[in-house]
Design a protein that fits this description.
By secondary structure, this protein is an alpha+beta fold. It has a four-stranded antiparallel β-sheet with strand order 2-3-1-4.
Length: about 260
């Protein structure tokens, strides 16, 4: 038999069955499709979080090329990325390529039975946007942007969405670990993250308590030999208690350790 450690935080969940049934009913009737995970990027500068978000989304897509990942910077980029894209469009216009594409589309419209000027409104709006870029994204995208890029006081935040599975969550957490102003929110992995955080802090406090006990015992007896002898009964009791838990296949959790 082996000693088992149960660090799942859900064992302390006291949510009523009525609440759980209500949540299940809501998801069954109103929630369609799997919920994504979110990589939250925060900072005191809007353009700063957009630049960091672009870099994080690019790294996530390179690491997981087959996943669907959405970042609001795809439709509302940073000032630097916006200037880069605008420069490319202006190069197309100055080279005459944009006009050439417009003529090709006029011919294609005729071939498909449409009027030659069918695509003119699109190219006119495109040319106007290249010459006089608008101050904001198209009105169609504004509700989406307002929900994925938010401001709370002096802080801005944005959300990058990706599939909620172990592989994607692990990759996103590795990216967030290098940035203190980033966090990953996952419905499926939430209990794992909380359990890991709680158990990690508890093990640190446990090691600190053992160390302080040893130090205090040594300071009291002023002798390594006497301090070691005084700790022997405690160690023996811990060994027998652990053996009993292993024999009866009872997992050790935080409440047991406190008890």
């Amino acid at each position: 038999s082996r000693i088992k450690l149960n660090d799942d935080i859900r064992q302390f969940d006291i949510t009523s069955q009525m609440t759980l049934k209500s949540e299940a009913s809501y998801e069954k009737n109103w929630q369609f499709g799997p919920r994504p995970s979110m990589l939250i990027v925060t900072g005191k500068s809007k353009d700063g979080i957009l630049r960091r978000g672009e870099a994080l989304a690019a790294r996530l897509r390179r690491a997981l090329p087959k996943i669907d990942c959405f970042s609001p910077t795809d439709i509302s980029p940073s000032a630097m990325k916006l200037a880069e894209r605008l420069s490319r469009w202006r190069q197309l216009e100055e080279s005459g390529r944009l006009l050439q594409i417009g003529e090709e589309m006029r011919q294609m419209a005729v071939e498909q039975g449409f009027a030659p000027e069918f695509f003119d409104p699109f190219f006119n709006a495109l040319g106007g946007g290249v010459k006089r870029p608008p101050d904001s994204a198209p009105e169609l995208f504004l509700p989406l942007i307002s929900r994925t890029i938010t401001r709370n006081g002096d802080w801005y935040s944005m959300m990058i969405f990706f599939p909620d599975n172990d592989i994607c969550n692990a990759e996103a957490r590795s990216l967030a670990a290098a940035d203190p102003d980033c966090a990953v929110i996952s419905r499926k992995g939430f209990h794992k993250m909380i359990s890991s955080e709680v158990s990690g802090r508890f093990m640190f406090l446990l090691a600190l308590a053992v160390s302080l006990t040893c130090v205090v015992t040594f300071l009291f007896f002023r002798s390594f030999l006497l301090a070691s002898a005084a700790l022997i009964p405690t160690l023996i009791s811990l060994i027998f208690t652990g053996a009993a838990y292993a024999v009866f296949n009872v997992p050790i959790n935080i409440s047991v350790c406190f008890g």
